[in-house]
Amino acid sequence: MNPKTLIQRAFLSLCLGLMLACWLGSRAQAAQPVQEPASTATAVSATLAWADVTRLSTPVSGVVAALPVQPGQVVAKGAVLLRLDRAPFADRLAASQAERAGLVRAGAEAGRDAERTQQLFDRTVASESERQDALIKQEKTQSQLSAAKARTDLRQWELARSELLAPFATRILSVETAVGETVSSELSAPTLMRIARADLMNAEANLNPSTAVGIQLGQLLKVQVNQTTVSGRVVGLASESSATGTSYRLTVQFQPQTGWIAGLPARIDLSN
Fold first, then answer.
1. 266 secondary structure, DSSP code
2. Average per-residue pLDDT in the chain?
3. Is residue 28 scored above 70 in pLDDT?
4. Which of 47, 56, 221, 226 could form a disulfide with 193 if both were Cys (CB 3.0 to 4.6 A apart)?
């Protein structure tokens, strides 16, 4: 075989090898999976928390006479949570009412006396000083009567405030007093009880700024606990600063299912 033929065959083999390598490379590239861009998370981990936690105390001082509730109990709005001994309040109210009644009679008599003195003065029988004395007595009695009415209203208010009533459907979180304990509200009213709403709960989650952007107060979001999903409303998006940067505390409020308590894990769907 002449040299020219050998060169042609070698060139042909080289071309075929290059074509085969290109074909195999294209097949391998087509077989590789396409990398999709990472999608933004639509749900975040959360924790259930009590809603509207409130610390209750009495604005009046007294001795605890009754505690008809216990921690963990759920009561209706208006239920009695705590009652102070009502006897001192009732006695002070009765005294104010008696004082007021006496001043009502005294005021009526002072008014009649001032009217008689004015008639005598008009007939030039009474002097100007007598007329002025009668008017001063009438005004003084009226002033005393007004003060007695105010004291009576105050005593009625104190008697009403000797009971703690549930401000809403209430779950008792803790009771921090006992029957027989003296409650002093003179300077700083002590916390006697911690309560939360029984008809509402919160789901709370920490978000980074890129996740929190676009969330609005009042927005409806889904909350999932175990396999149950309920609809809730955004009631808080508080910013919290730390050494690592700024984060946001998302609070979604909803009506809980039976058996749901604070601390249970949950998930909040942000795609709504």
1. E
2. 88
3. no
4. 56
Give the orientation angle of helix 128-160 with respect to helix 87-122, to 10 degrees.
160
Average pLDDT score over residue span 161-174? 96
The answer to whether the beta carbons of residues 190 and 55 sit under 8 Å apart is no
d(CA 269, CA 272): 7
pLDDT band at 241; cut points 50, 70, 90: confident
Token code pair at residue 101: 């009644």
- As to burial, measured by CB atoms within 10 angstroms (0-12 exposed, 13-18 middle, 19+ buried), residue 160 is exposed
Q: Compute φ and ψ for 163, nearest 5 degrees.
A: -115, 140
Order of strands across the sheet that contains 54-56: 54-56, 193-197, 170-175, 74-75
Can you give the residue ranges of every domain in the chain?
43-51+199-269, 54-85+161-197, 88-160
Spatial distance between the Cα atoms of 265 and 117, rounded to a whole number of angstroms: 83
Q: Are 138 and 111 in contact (CB under 8 A)?
A: yes
Task: Provide the total of helices (H) and of strands (E) in the chain, helices listed first.
Answer: 4, 14
**CATH number of this structure's domain 54-85+161-197, picked from the four choices 2.30.30.100, 2.40.50.100, 3.30.420.40, 1.20.120.1630:** 2.40.50.100
> Looking at residues 158-187, what average pLDDT do you find?
94
